[in-house]
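Workshop exercise sheet. Pairs work together: one partner reads the sequence aloud, the other fills in the structure field after running the prediction. Swap roles for the next sheet.
Pair: D.N. / O.F.
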Amino acid sequence: MDKSLLGDLDSLPEEDKVRMSAMIEQLQIRDSLRMYNTLVERCFTDCVDSFRRKSLDKQEETCVRRCAEKFLKHSMRVGMRFAELNQGAATPD
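Structure field:
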């Protein structure tokens, strides 16, 4: 877990720190699963046209690969931009 997320929790009692850490970790897991599910649903919908076979044909496979790469690059860029904005909004204590 990112230690910067817990930086403001130093004044809390130890048991509250542990509870908050667990909550933050659960939120991070939930967000990761949500992103994965969105990726799968979007790329499947955009790329898979028929159910003739158990496996993807070459065109579908290429489409899914490109879709996943674009989605992940976009998600990383958005995350980096939020981090940049968050650093700019941080105020010294």
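Discussion prompt: The chain has a mean pLDDT of 85. What would you look at next?
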